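>> received
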Amino acid sequence: VLHRHGYADYNLFDKLFFKYVRKVIYISNDVANYHLGRGEYSDKGVVIYNGIDLEKYSPISNARAFRQEMGFGLQQPVIGHVARLDWWKGHEVFIDAIAKVKKQKGDVHGIIVGGIAELHYHKSKKYYENLLTQVASLGLDDHIQFLGHRTDLPRLLATFDVIVHASSTPE
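>> returned
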């Protein structure tokens, strides 16, 4: 079984052993179409979306405590963006949007949750550095925080008033 969750093409090793793969699991139709368009056999493939334990995401009462930990007021709008730090995930769009909201509405806080992408680490690290420069150039140092990779997403999501998905490429 092969699990395809991105757009990377096969290397020589993958190509040699693909004939032994019985099933290919794609995380989305777009990922499946990408690879089927490059010659993977459709009779081997199936789309299975990543599962989510919905019980973990029921309303959580400690959102208030998290806001206090972060220094946010209970009425201060908190806008979140959850995605690994990778060029196509749209962090720069999110940062620009926070700048516009701040200009129109005043006190707002943006939280970016996600670590540097392991694949192409150096490219992703440079992307992160560019995001920090963008935040500084827009005067948002006190309005946007990068929290890195987190394991307490249900708690964070309960804290956000708005969640932004800004990817520039489908997954």
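>> The mean pLDDT is 88.
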